[in-house]
Amino acid sequence: MLLVSCVYLLHNTWQSFVGKHNFSYQSMEVLRYWTHSSTLRGSQLNEETAGSKLFALTLYTTLWASMYRIQLSLWSHRTAEWRCRVVSLTHGTLVTYLSYYSQCVEGPSVFGIEPGLPNNNTQVFIAKLCLGYFIFDLVWCLCYQTEPPIMIVHHVLSIFGTANMIFQGKWGTELVAVIGATEVSNPLLQLRWFLKSAGYSKTILGEIVDFLFIIVFGAFRFLLSGY
């Protein structure tokens, strides 16, 4: 939660510099945002300039890359993939919570609405976090050549689709729902890898995580997404 608040505060600080908002007001809004106040600012429509959006994307990409870089000092004995999966685990957990909040608490929900509604601030915030991560992950995959070509294409399409939502200014409700449904199983996927790399995949804990991953993946990727 501290990470989310810091990123959101940095984003809104930049907006204050381009003359769109007052910094002290935004600082209080961050606190109200995460305490579920009835005056949430996130439900307001997003009206950023293209320059502000590009700056935010640079900021979030740098954020994920910095998280990876910091691990070189903290866990220098770990492999590059281990450090990358820590970033992936953090991203998956974070955007799953934010997507749930956007869809189920703040709204609008993807169920029962007209498609193509204008984006609100929360939806754009989630999309920027994801796009920054997608860019970081694509660069990492290209550098270490760990993924097959089909996964590189998948990364490129994810980047294109998310950027299209941000700069067109609509489809935020649908994209956030897709992000939530696809990322909800990501923390379990990463946990499976960590358990396997540590030699615990055949333990009771490993079996439980495998079972939960299959259930969550199937429920969200096939049942809920199909609905």
UniProtKB/TrEMBL annotation:
Keyword terms: Membrane, Transmembrane, Transmembrane helix
Cellular component per GO, a single term: membrane
Pfam families linked: TRAM_LAG1_CLN8
Membrane topology of this protein: Multi-pass membrane protein
Segments traversing the membrane: 204-224
Lineage: Eukaryota, Metazoa, Spiralia, Lophotrochozoa, Bryozoa
Main location, first listed in the record: membrane
Signal peptide residues on this chain, from the entry's feature table: none
Coiled-coil region: none
Domain TLC: 77-227
InterPro entries registered for this protein in UniProt: TLC-dom (IPR006634), TLCD5 (IPR042512)
Listed name of the protein: TMEM136
Organism: Bugula neritina (Brown bryozoan)
Superkingdom of the organism of origin: Eukaryota
Compartment list: Membrane
